[in-house]
Amino acid sequence: MARILVALSGGVDSSVAALLLQQQGHELVGAYMKNWINEDNVLGHCPWMQDIDDARATAEVLGIEFRVVNLMADYRRLVVDYLLDGYQRGLTPNPDVMCNREMKFGVFAQYAKAEGFAAVATGHYARRVETGRVELPGSPLSEANGNVRGAPSGHALPQFALLEGLDKNKDQSYFLALLSQAQLRDALFPIGHLTKPALRELAADAKLPTARKKDSQGICFIGEVKMADFLKAYVPEHPGPIVRATDGKILGAHRGLHYYTIGQRRGIRIPSNTDHQAYVVTGKRTSDHALLVAFDQPNAPGLWATGCRVHSLSFIGEPITTTQRLECRVRYRDPRVAIEFVPVAGFAGPELVEGAGPRELGRAGPLDPTLSEANGPVRGALSGRVLPQAAQIQFDQPQRALAPGQIMALYRGEQLIGSGVFT
Structure pTM? Predict the structure, then answer.
């Protein structure tokens, strides 16, 4: 049995994750990741103190050690700065996906390794399945695509696939789309085989204090803070015109492009003056800070797409270097849709051109800081192949409101295989 560090968030999911691992006989320590405490008094409720109390109470019921791990500086640098920088440049970043790569399975996992733990466990609704073992040569290898540095000759490492959670209403595989094989190797998802009702029943039977606690909402680890309030506190307003995309007519003014995202209908505050029609955001024009809107119809310019490009490709296992039929999820709650995936070597994407760093966009993450995609295509460590940085995506069915900066998760059936970032 292994010594495992369980990320206790103060919610029922992570509480049951710890319960199941304890029942399996593992040696556990529970830890609350203290990432954000609303220290700047952003409007909204940030229940971190209650979450710590609930996590500690869970650890006491289970009879395990409990720690509070202060990662606030790392969270501000790796997640909050990424979030704010993206919005300032007219993008729609995803802090929850980035938090998983950089924090839970990045900084927090490094802390766990330094403390002698074999793995980090979380309450994600996802399943990790071993698919085999790989024999590695003795030469130094890159972790960027799941290999390790300096593995002894003949050493075999387990390889894993990441599957959707059994409960399709709660599946959280999308939020793990930026993980590498190296990160997945040291991660455990004990509740991925459960439905939410069954999980709450287990929590109640074990008399866990979080058994009836409501699921949290809001930005990852920031709490019940509205995104508009958060952005208002940190991003300077830059007014501009609201322009009708179909004819260029100026309809009004806005306070800043960062308050809007593609597909948004509420909060535009422009009357349509047309029965049964409402305006929707269809684009952002950075040259004059114009917010583009149109009636929410299938022919609205820029609202629906039959294809797109994604950059900063990321793969959990073997990179895809040839045209293939896959599936993708364009946002968390959307179903998987069929696509044709066509790799494009050497395409950098607008964010790279504007100077964003590899942590925000690239493959390596915190485990291999030596790899930077900003300097061109990346060569595979094992084969010397030039790996594609981007891909052209063709949808079998048109997709609505693809926002630049958001994450596309790539699948083969239930298996999450990687991701890209919308250009």
Answer: 0.86
Q: Which of 46, 220, 308, 328 is catalytic?
A: 220
Q: Which amino acid is it at 307? A: G
Q: Which domains are assigned to the chain?
A: 3-227 (3.40.50.620), 236-261+263-295 (2.30.30.280), 304-422 (2.40.30.10)
What does the pLDDT look like over 314-339, one tens digit per residue? 999 999 999 999 999 999 999 999 99
C-alpha 135 chain-centroid distance: 30
Is residue 328 part of the annotated active site? The answer reads no
Q: Is residue 46 flagged as an active site residue?
A: no
Q: What are phi and psi of 182, to 5 degrees?
A: -60, -40
Q: Are 418 and 315 in contact (CB under 8 A)?
A: yes
How does strand 304-315 pair with strand 390-400? antiparallel
User: Burial level of 288, CB count in 10 A (0-12/13-18/19+)?
Assistant: exposed
Q: Residues near 146 by Cβ (< 8 Å), separated by ≥ 6?
A: 159, 180, 181, 182, 184, 185, 316, 317
- Asked if residue 312 lies in contact with residue 389, where contact means CB atoms within 8 angstroms, the answer is yes
* pLDDT tens readout for residues 60-96: 999 999 999 999 999 999 999 999 999 999 999 999 9
Please tell me which residue in 46, 99, 308, 328 is annotated as part of the active site.
99
CA 320 to chain centre: 20
